[in-house]
Structure formats: structure tokens, C-alpha cells
Amino acid sequence: MNPRVLAQLARQLGSLALTLFLSSVVIFCAVLLTPGDPVSAFAGGTRPTPDMIAAIRAEHHLDDPVWLQYLHWAGGVLTGDLGTSYVYRTDVVDLIAPRVGITVLLVAYAVVLIAVFGVGSGIVAATRGRIADRAVLMATSIGMALPTFVVAILLIWIFARVLGWFPVYGAGEGFLDQLYHLTLPAISLAVLYIAYLSRITRGAVVSQLHSEHVETARVRGIPRARIFRRHVFLNASPQILAVSGATVAGLFAVSAIAEQAFGIGGLGSLLTEAAARKDVPVVQVISLLLVVVFVVLNAIADVAIAIIDPDSVKPGRTA
Amino acid sequence: MTAPMHGPVIAPVLELDRLAVRAAIDGETRTLVHDCTIRVAPGEAVGLVGESGSGKTLSARAVAGLLPEGFSTGGAIRIEGEDLAALSPSRLRDLRARRIGMVFQSPRAHLNPLRTIGDFMTEALVSVAGAKPDAAAARAADLLAEVGIPDPARLLRQRPGELSGGLLQRVMIASTLAMDPRILLADEITTALDVTTQEEVMAVIADLRRHRDLAMLFITHDLALAGAVCDRVAVMQHGRVIETLRASTMRSDASEPYTKRLMAAALPEEERGAGANATTGPAAPVLAVEDLRKVFAVRSERGFGTDRFTAVDGVGFELRAGSALGIVGESGSGKSTTARIVCGLETADAGTVAVMGDDWSRPARGAAERRRRARVAQMVFQDPYQSLDRRRTVGQTLAEAIGVHRPGLRRAELRDRVEALLGAVRLDVALAERRPRALSGGQLQRVAIARALAAEPEILVLDEAVSALDVTTQVEILTLLDGIRRETGVALLMISHDLETVRRLCDRVVVMRAGVVVEQGAIAEVLDRPQAEYTRTLLDSIPREGWVPRRRLTARTTPLPTVATAATRTIRQGDLHE
After folding, report:
1. A-B interface: how many C-beta pairs under 8 angstroms?
2. d(CA B410, CA B415)
3. Whether residue B145 is found in the same domain as residue B111
4. What's A201's domain CATH number?
5. pLDDT tens-digit profile of A225-243?
6. Angle at A225 between CA A222 and CA A227, to 5 degrees
7. Number of domains, chain A
8. Can you tell me which family this protein belongs to (chain A) (predicted)?
9. What is the pLDDT of residues B414-466, one digit of tens each?
10. Residues in chain A whose beta carbon is closer than 8 A to a beta carbon of chain B?
């Protein structure tokens, strides 16, 4: 492999570790700073006696200095002990594990939709003449203006109520049934990003279409499809990839809205619920998970870009 | 030279018959090229010379099928007798792919940066001519060797970003040869290259044409270069071919005043130089640079760690009050870095810069100090389109520059000063209301100079200030600068890659190469009796009457056999360059 790509990989791993450390500190402190006493959340509605309070504080190290609390928590996370939910009184691992699958499936479904329709419509807008360009521009303007929950409501009304094609609620059983159930949620999740990626793709492809090296290929009589594949799209892909990394990572956070709207018991709805009920350990772990996903996906995108374009890693020429 | 004219039997390789190029802009159609008629016989080289906007590039692009959307053509374009308008799109693409080779001004932009040279060289062979990848790769290596590239196998694995401009231009040329074209369309192919590299590339082309019986349409703004490498030269102005001259006798045959002006601009004026010397006595130096050194850390080729690159190494010179000093060198010589250190845009690692007795070795700290220095030294950059704010009128730009150095001027005084500055650069006062978009390149550069003069500086640093301009405009700007120097006594420090530019303006010259001063002295001494080998090479590389480009890299000794038979055309070998 190209040494520059390897160097990029090494740098990515270094920054990954640093980002995780810093964000874990921020997440830990942010949750501590929110108003309300975790003890009352843990006591769960009953009025605790002073003895109970002392027992709870001791069990959860709440009387230790903040840095020691952090170390305790971070050490636990590193060794696989994610703590205990204040609300459900079960291990956070047991809460999260069964919900990861459905969220990942939902996001993956949305990613496929975004890749196919976002990149596809962007290419159509860039290459299929003025009318196609206008049409895609209009559609994407609408797509970008619609918030995810509005799309969800519209989809439920049209496809579930009026047409009755898709179920309104739940995640389904078995892979195909799950896909069937997740179709509307995935669409509602994807619309905004399809519009966004479409714009990015159109811009990147247009700038390559008019670039001088594509001109050279045309003079040389290279067939159109080949020019598009090997000179236009290839060269536009680093830009598209860079945006995609951040987009897909963002989907995990936004999936909460779709999960709530369609009653899917995934990570997103767990996060919203936990935040509302001040279930600190659950919020911390899911937040940290989101950061990990975000950083890892962006790192993957960066390495992919480095493989396509090793020179992008090199700093600009001096002198 | 025997007549390389089109006989009754041989059809011209390329024929433009009353070609017109029209553009529909905002609903109105404008004709940009009128009735352009040019014939290029087999093996012949025709130069198409003119300034920017003359329509020379549009004509070539019409042939190659590269006109932008909304452009249309009239008249006829024929390649080996076939009218392009009568062909089906696929047949047209095939004809262009096999008969025409096009080379452009900036090879770096015209090669896909993400693909290897090998990909680029073999792509047309595989996808158009249907060659097997292995055979295509072998042929690519042969072609690279033919254009004098020493290690073709290695080069095939490299990407454009790893190669110099001169090498890339050779790759471009080699790639066009893959299909054995009959004609090369060369659009300003050496404009972006250093003179020595230009000579190399032109020598390569001369060899190829000799061995392959290759015709060429050579588009350039440089009449001297066209005259040196072509058989005939067509001069274009305002979209028309105003005259076509035999290259060998063009200097005496030219009848159009415009052609004569182009020639005057391209030729060294012998009586100048000495005149410039006369005005400068032994004045005190306003700028003294000593033992300057600048090292950049660049990321190493292998990805880890850094390499050190010495851009400027022990450079020293003096600029006397009211005089003009030129720093010449090719790209990578360190001339621009030197200028940037002098202006405080870069910090030297060692050495001193003294301006009028003050130490300027480090960039100014604080706004007050920067302003104080700006009153002494001002800079004019290469591209006036980028160095002026397009949203401000010329008057606003100048008023702002005046305001920096003379705060609190009243409105009327400010306007008087703006008018005085426009007068100083010989621009009409009415232009103060215009924005940059409405001005020509020459006018814009005058505005940039006026803005620099607003500070009433002692030193004007000109970083390639005329390189982006047409030749006739170059002469105007150089004359203007010389006039300003005489009137105001400002000292000029001119950074240029062009020895002729420096000769026209400067009384002393510093020749730099790879960060080191190779030679310096009075302009006449250095340019007419060069001591350094490198200065001689630079001077030899300038196209002039009777100039024959020479290859400095070792080339292969035997030409490649080509599909087109060169044997029948041996008569013309001697005509070209010997």
C-alpha cells in the first residue's frame, strides 16, 4: 500500500484516540452539570431516607471528586462495565445490546437509499440537461426544507393510512418483515440527506465535467461512459465521500426522530427516553457510542479518500 | 526553403475554410471568429499568432470539438479532405481521436491527477484502438522514450503530481502520438514553462515532426517563437486572420501595422538598456540584502517525517535609490521567496534585509510598523484580476489605499489625489467609476500600480508584474514603469522569469538558480557578456531569428517506426530546422 496512505491511517488512529478521550470528558461533565440530583432519579419516585441516600451515593461514588468519578466511569467503559441504569436498574449493556441491531438496520437502509437516490439524482442533474437539472433542484429544495418528523407524518398519512401499503407501527419480526416495517422510517430519515448529497454530487460532477483533464479525454476520443466513470465520477468521489462520512454518522443521531415517530424500539428512542428521565449512565454510554460511530465513519471516509487520491494527504507545495 | 505548399495531389491535413465561430451570450449572437481560412499541408507547421481574445484558441478548439455550449460554427473544417460537419458523431469522434493530437497550455490541469501516467498513456489505445493492455503499455513506454524520457517504465507508475511541468508536457505530447495522428494542435503549449524547458519541448516536437511527417497548428502569442518553429505564420486580430507570412522571411514581408507591433514587442530593443543606465549615478542603496537564507520543511516523499528544502541560499544584492534591479530565474530558483522576504511576507532563517538603514530582517510587528514599512515598499503582483477587489470601483480602491497612508483627507483632496494617481499611470479619469470586470488586463495592472504608488513608496517590488499580459501590453506597462521611475525616483525591484522583460526595464540584474545567485551585474554586461554557464543557457533558450531549439536531455537515437510512412517526405527534412 502507498506509504502516504499508511501514514494517513496512522494519523487517523491517533486522532481517533484523542477525540474519544476529549469527548468522553465532555460527555461525562455535561451530564453531571445538568440540573437535578441523580439520587432522586435512582430512588425512582419514592422519598428516600437519609440512609438510603448515603448508600446510593456510596455505591455510585457520587461523593468522590469529579476526576475520580470520571476515571471510575472511563475505566468501567474500557473494561466493558458500562454501569447500571438508574431507571431500569439493569446493566446498561443489557439495555443497549438488543436495540443496536434494529437501529443499525434502519440506518443502513437509509444509507442505501441516500447513496442510490442522492448520488443518482445528483448525477442526473449534472448530466441530463437543463430540464432534469431544474427538476432535481426543485425536488431537493423541498427535501431540504422538510424536517424529518414532518416527512414521517406525511408518509404515515399517505402510505399507511390512505393507501395502506405499509405498517404504521413497530419493527417487525424476521429480516424481510423488518425491512418492510422499516421502509417508511428509512425514507423519512433519508429524504433530507438525499437532497443534501444530491446537491453535493451535482456540484462535484459538474466541476469535473468542465475540468481540463476531461477535455483532454474527450479530444482523445475516449467513449463517454468511460470518461464519466474514470475521469468525472472518480475525481468527484473524494468530495462526495467526505460529505458522506459526516452524513451517515449524523443519521444515528437523527434516527431517534424516526424511531419515535414509528414506534421502533431502537437506540434513538432509548436515548430520548433516558434523557427525559435523567438516566445518566444510559445517556453517557449512548452519547459516547455516537461519538465513536461519528469518528470511525469519518476516519473510514478519510482513508478511502486517501486511497483514491494519495496527493490529498500531502501538504501544499512550498516555494 | 522550398515551397511546402499543397500540391494538386495531396489534400491538406487540416483545412479551415472561411471558419466562423459564433457564441450565443444572453440571447444575442456574437461572431468571435470571422472567415478564418488556413490550410496545413502534410508535414507542414503553421503558426497561429495573436493576443488574448484574437480568436486563435477558439479556432483550434472548433477543430478539436471543444467549443463551449452555446457556440456554433460556420464555414467548413476539413481533416484530410473530410468535412467534419458531414460526419456522424461516432465517426467524428473516431476521426478526431485518430487524426488529431491536441496538446494544451497547462499539462498539469489537462492530466487526471488521480490516474497514473500509464493509465493516461494507454487509455486511448485500449478503448479507442482496441489494443491489448500489455501491448499498449509497451507502446506507451516506447513513446515516452521517443520524447526523451529517461526511465519510461518508472514514469508509467507515477501520477502527475509527482512530475515537473516540462516532463508532463512531454507526456502529453507522447500520448498524442499513440494514435499516429497526422496533425498536432498545439495551444500555447510552452507558455506556462520556463525558457529552458520551452526549448526542450520545442526540440522534442521538431524531432518528432522530422521523423513522423507530422503537421502542426501551433498557437501562440509569441511571434518570435512561432517564426522559429513554423513554416508559415498566420497573424490573427479581432477574430480575423490579417496576414499569413512565410516564417523565414516574415520580418521583411510583414505589411500589417499590427504584425509589426507584435514583432517590435517580441524583439529586444537594442538601444534601450543603455538609456536606463545613464540616469543612475552612484546613489545610496535603499535596499541591501545580505546572505539571505530560507529553508522550508516539506513533508517527505515517503509519507513520514519531513525533508528540508533550501529555497534561498546566501543571496545578497543592493538596490540603489531610483534604479531598477531585476531578479531573474526559472521556477524554483528562489526569486519569489526572496521578494516575499523583502516585503515581510516570509521570515528569513538567516541573513539581513536593510531598507534605508533600518533592519527589515523580520516581518513587521504591529499595525503601526507595518504601515510605516508599507510607505517605503509596495508590491505589484502577477495577476491584476485577482489582486483587485472586484466589487469596488477603481476610485474606491485607490481612495482606500490613499486613506491608509494619509488619514483625514477631505473629499475633494481625496478625489484630486485619485485623479493624480490615474494620471500617473496614464489612465482616463473616467475609469475611476468602473469596476475591475469592465477593464482590460493592461488597464487593471495600471490600477494595481497606481494603488501601490498611493503610498508614495521608495521601492516598488514587481513580482512577475507583466508576465500575465499580452506582449504589446507588456511593452506599454514596462514603458510606463520606466517613466514612473524617472519621474518619481522610485526604485524598482523586478522579479521575472523573462530576461527580455528585465532587459527593457532594469539597469542591473541578479540571475538566480536553485536558491543561489549565479551571476549579477550591470544589465548589458550580464546579458551581452554572460560569465556563468547558466546565464548563457537562459539566453540561448530565448526564441529569435534563426533559433533552433536544442535537446539537452539525451534522447533515443533512432526514431520509432510509425504507421504513416515518413520515407516519401525526406525532401522536407532539411527545410525545417537546418
Report:
1. 99
2. 9
3. yes
4. 1.10.3720.10
5. 999 999 999 999 999 998 8
6. 50
7. 1
8. Belongs to the binding-protein-dependent transport system permease family.
9. 999 999 999 999 999 999 999 888 888 889 999 999 999 999 999 999 998 88
10. 2-8, 211-213, 215-223, 226, 230-231, 234-235, 308-311, 313-315, 317-319
